[in-house]
From TrEMBL:
One of its GO terms (cellular component) is oxidoreductase complex. Its cofactor is Mo-bis(molybdopterin guanine dinucleotide); [4Fe-4S] cluster. It comes from Paracoccus sphaerophysae. Keywords: 4Fe-4S, Iron, Iron-sulfur, Metal-binding, Molybdenum, Nitrate assimilation, Oxidoreductase. The lineage of its organism: Bacteria, Pseudomonadati, Pseudomonadota, Alphaproteobacteria, Rhodobacterales. GO terms for molecular function: 4 iron, 4 sulfur cluster binding; metal ion binding; molybdopterin cofactor binding; oxidoreductase activity. One of its GO terms (biological process) is cellular respiration. This is Nitrate reductase. Residues 1-54 form the 4Fe-4S Mo/W bis-MGD-type domain. InterPro entries: Asp_de-COase-like_dom_sf (IPR009010), BFD-like_2Fe2S-bd_dom (IPR007419), BFD-like_2Fe2S-bd_dom_sf (IPR041854), CT_Nitrate-R-NapA-like (IPR041957), MoPterin_dinucl-bd_dom (IPR006657), Mopterin_OxRdtase (IPR006656), Mopterin_OxRdtase_4Fe-4S_dom (IPR006963), MopterinOxRdtase_cofactor_BS (IPR027467). It comes from the Bacteria.
């Protein structure tokens, strides 16, 4: 049994790993302070993602396998030559908040101290950069004041732009527990009725981007009611201006006066309020101002750093926080030190014995890839990220990477949109195979520990970075393992502490290897005199004068204005059971069953107006690109708004890459792109041919639309084309399945306009294709279950709800219970979540599906409207 940490979200749940056969069993760690044994659907399915199929197991140079020595020499030589010819700013690293602290530390040291450029940026630019900028403006440092216990002890939790039930499910469970224990109220501020909004006491469907206008209304009300905390304000500057600006705010919130009044009343009346914020705040062209608008309200009332109250940025990735600590962003140094402060630079240069310190900030992610595109950057190393999918203007980013002189990608698989463009691929040891530390949203540092041997030649990322540094001729990169790197990082944080920074874990700097091995989770700071706790209740801040800043901010509309040609506001984000570009969660069949295809949520009124039928296909177009997505008609989104998930890629649904559509408009201070407010056109994509295909092995579509997923029995795909294939369905199917000669049984159902092709070998079904002129309506999970079965007499095309029981989309991933079974339980009389759980077991695992079950019950409980 090995204690480690989940590699997905910033909740940072502790897990207990037990190697079993070739795989792992994964359980929640009852002793970890973040989760106390709980896990969500993604954490629960971790054991299913560690299989070695598709893993990158050896370095690859220009498509040919190579040894590490050759690959590392090659990378070092190309970086050295590029720097010699074009200077240090002609090279760059693009990193990730999923790297371990030790990996991150080495990359940052190499680039900022030895190569002498600050062109090291990370996907945290797309994620947390606005929060970092907002924290620094208000507090003088990027410090999260509170802890998770505040969620347990709050009387009001306000979730701003956070779909907590899906994206931080274990924190949502803590909030639910607080509701049950102390009656905590929950407000969700989100233009979309997310499952979290549905479960809240109050949902404020704010106009997209209007958060500053809303929090300015709140600040004005706080001042108007005399609720400012005069004592605390003696530790704050800028209050008068911020309040005056708030009182003058004229921006629309999109909310009714009653909704506004209810929110203001709740916030003003409740001292213990935690305002949790996430990507609805950060991913905005006014993201930093949104952060400060929220911080202003907490500073004005002194509700910060005390039990049950404070602003709380929940981090997305498992080590988003650790990346900020090592200085992974292009405008940071290390340990919360500033690149632009000569004393800070000198201190770090001395500690590293650095020959060539970067002296000014490097290029931020969006700018970095523009520099790749126009040839200012000629050598690029991408580690643990998939920017060809996840950066805005993704088609341009993909072209930029493809056109770059020299691209190195470190990944666990070569089958990603980005890895396919690399000159050199380096095989990384994956989560369960490597050791190091991560820091979660509440500053708790936890160990990740290896439980499995790395396959083939896979090695940890820190090792590859240190090897390249040494081969470039640099000293100071000869650690024998992550413990040594961690000690160095901790020692540097002590120097930062001496310079007045609060990120100081120097209490861990002298730790021997054995202690690092056994290290229990701890919260920073960690020094001889101070360990863990909250910040700022004492009124001491990290600005030059020690006082916090209230920043006057005014609402701005999203960067892209709506026009008659681009009349829809496109919002993007996450679904419950997938992680980003699905390179890991997509390997677990049960996680692919919740929502198996890229989609766009469209309000019923808009769907009617545009003649978009449910489950038809629609084209979403902006000035930067287009996507083709399955239409989900739902009033979760308001008229004029759309929502699409970010997860699909060239590997899983080439026309579903939503970042192709997102313009690279960024926040002027943080450089974070506006991923949630594109101006787009929506139109039917009038396919004349639809198909659903399942296979035990090969499934290689080439139709203009396709989306493919892994299943329990192989692969499944949705296909569509504008016209039926001229060569006929059989020819298409034989190529699709790679079965040129297999025995074929064909059946045509004229009533349903459905053709079924069944490929058989040895009396067993290998592959099935169902095709027709309209979206294929079938019990998909029943079809998937037929692969490998003997060809029987029953219909090859099961209809939903007819022959075999069909689960439909899986709502409870932990227990494998689908929407149809839950609906049946509700039909049979289950009237609350507990009754559904008793009847089906749904909702008894991680609980992330409970809001969806509650929603089904609510819908079923609406009395049928009397016919008029
Ligand atoms: N299942 C799952 N969980 C994850 C991840 C994942 O990929 N899958 N990724 C992790 C990562 S890296 C991150 S950063 C987090 C993100 O976690 P969240 O921020 O909770 O997730 P998102 O879905 O990106 O966006 C949250 C909400 O912002 C809303 N929103 C859009 N525009 C606005 C606006 O103008 N104002 C307000 N107030 N709200 C708005 C959206 O409608 C959406 O519901 O999730 C983490 N957890
Ligand atoms: N439209 C839109 N775009 C968005 C967002 C949005 O809400 N909307 N959200 C943004 C946010 S918040 C984020 S955080 C980003 C995330 O975007 P990315 O970081 O680009 O997405 P991931 O899929 O997490 O990419 C991680 C890569 O690392 C690889 N990998 C896994 N384990 C290891 C390892 O141990 N070592 C190495 N070297 N590689 C490994 C995976 O196979 C994968 O290719 O997306 C951003 N993009
Ligand atoms: S909430 Fe889920 S994804 Fe996040 S750390 Fe915990 S188990 Fe992992
Ligand atoms: Mo993120």
């Amino acid at each position: 049994m090995i204690c480690s940490t989940c590699p997905y979200c910033g909740v940072g749940c502790g897990v207990i790993l037990s190697p079993a056969g070739n795989g792992l069993t994964v359980k929640g760690d009852p002793d970890h302070p973040a989760n106390r044994g709980r896990l969500c659907s993604k954490g629960t399915a971790l054991g299913e993602t560690v299989s070695l199929s598709g893993r990158l197991v050896s370095p690859v140079i220009d498509g040919a396998e190579a040894g590490w020595d050759t690959a590392l020499d090659h990378v070092a030589a190309r970086f050295r030559q590029t720097i010699a010819a074009h200077g240090p700013d002609s090279v760059a690293f693009y990193l990730s908040g999923q790297m371990l602290t030790e990996d991150y530390y080495v990359a940052n040291k190499l680039m900022k101290g030895f190569i002498g450029s600050a062109n090291v940026d990370t996907n945290s630019r797309l994620c947390m950069a606005s929060t970092v900028a907002g924290h620094v403006r208000a507090f003088g440092a990027d410090t999260v004041p509170g802890t998770y216990e505040d969620l347990d002890e709050a009387d009001l939790v306000v979730l701003v732009g956070s779909n907590l039930a899906w994206c931080h499910p274990v924190l949502w469970q803590r909030v639910e527990a607080a509701r049950a224990a102390r009656g905590t109220r929950v407000v969700v501020i989100d233009p979309r009725r997310s499952v979290t909004a549905e479960a809240a006491d109050l949902h404020l469907p704010i106009a997209p981007g209007a958060d500053v206008a809303l929090f300015n209304r709140l600040l004005a009300a706080i001042a108007d009611r005399g609720l400012t905390d005069a004592g605390f304000l003696s530790h704050v500057t800028g209050a008068d201006e911020a309040i005056a600006t708030a009182c003058a705010e004229s921006g629309e919130t999109g909310l009714s006066l009653a909704e506004l009044a209810r929110f203001i009343e709740l916030w003003c009346r409740t001292e213990r309020v935690v305002t949790v914020f996430s990507q609805g705040v950060n991913q905005s062209s006014s993201g930093t101002d949104k952060v400060n608008a929220i911080l202003n309200c907490h500073l004005a009332t002194g509700r910060i750093g005390r039990p049950g109250m404070g602003p709380f940025s929940v981090t997305g990735q498992p080590n988003a926080m650790g990346g900020r600590e090592v200085g992974g962003l292009a405008n940071q140094l290390a340990c919360h030190l500033s690149l632009e402060n000569p004393d800070h630079r000198a201190a770090v240069a001395g500690f590293w014995n650095a020959p060539r310190m970067a002296e000014r900030p490097g290029l931020k992610a969006v700018e970095m890839f523009r520099a790749v595109s126009d040839g200012r950057i000629r050598a690029l190393w991408i580690i643990h990220s998939n920017p060809a999918v996840t950066l805005p203007e993704a088609d341009a980013v993909r072209a930029a990477i493809a056109g770059c002189d020299f691209v190195v990608v470190s990944d666990v698989t070569g089958a990603t949109d980005t890895a396919r463009l690399a000159h050199v691929l380096l095989p990384a040891a994956a989560w369960a195979e490597k050791s190091g530390t991560v820091t979660n949203s509440d500053r708790t540092v936890s160990r990740q520990r290896a439980a499995l041997p790395p396959p083939g030649q896979a090695r940890p990322d820190w090792w590859a970075l240190a090897q390249v540094a040494r081969r470039m001729g640099f000293g100071g990169f000869d650690w024998d393992g992550p413990a040594a790197i961690f000690r160095e990082h901790a020692a540097l944080s002590g120097i930062a502490g001496g310079l007045g920074r609060d990120f100081d874990i120097s209490g861990k700097a002298g730790m021997p290897d054995a202690e690092y091995e056994a290290m229990e989770p701890f919260r920073w700071p960690f020094t001889a005199t101070r360990q863990g706790g909250r910040f700022f209740a004492d009124g001491h801040f990290l600005t030059p004068d020690g006082r916090a800043r209230m920043v006057p901010v005014t609402a701005r509309a999203p960067a892209a204005g709506l026009t008659p040609e681009r009349p829809f506001r496109l919002n993007t984000g996450r679904i419950r059971d997938q992680w980003h570009t699905m390179t890991r969660t997509g390997r677990a069949p049960r996680l692919n069953r919740h929502l198996g295809e890229p989609f766009v949520e469209v309000n019923p009124a808009d769907a009617l107006r545009l003649r978009l039928a449910p489950f038809s296909l629609a084209e979403v177009t902006s000035d930067s690109g287009r996507a083709i997505l399955r239409v989900v008609v739902t009033d979760r989104v308001a008229s004029g708004q759309l929502f699409a998930p970010m997860h699909w890629t060239g590997e899983t649904a080439p026309t579903g890459r939503i970042d192709a559509v997102i313009a690279a408009a960024t926040d002027p201070l943080s450089g974070q792109p506006e991923s949630k407010a594109a101006a787009v056109t929506l139109a039917p994509w009038t396919a004349g041919w639809f198909a659903f295909a399942v296979s035990d092995d090969v499934l290689a579509p080439s139709t203009p639309y396709w989306a493919r997923r892994k299943t329990e029995t192989g692969l499944a795909a949705e296909l569509a084309a504008l016209t039926p294939p001229s060569e006929g369905a059989e020819a298409i199917a034989r190529v699709l399945f790679g079965l040129p000669d297999a025995e074929l049984i064909r059946s045509d159902d004229p009533a349903r306009e459905l053709t079924t092709l069944c490929f058989v070998r040895g009396g067993r079904i290998r592959a099935l294709l169902f095709a027709g002129p309209t979206p294929v309506s079938l019990a998909r999970e029943s079809v998937i279950a037929r692969i490998g079965a003997p060809v029987g007499r029953e219909s090859l095309a099961p209809r939903a709800g007819t022959d075999q029981p069909d689960e439909g989309p899986i709502l409870c991933a932990c227990m494998g219970v689908g929407r149809n079974r839950i609906a049946a339980a509700i039909d049979a009389g289950a009237r609350d979540v507990a009754a559904v759980a008793a009847a089906t077991c749904a909702g008894t695992g991680c609980g992330a599906c409970r809001p969806e079950i509650a929603a089904l019950i609510a819908v079923a409980s609406v009395p049928a409207m009397a016919a008029e």
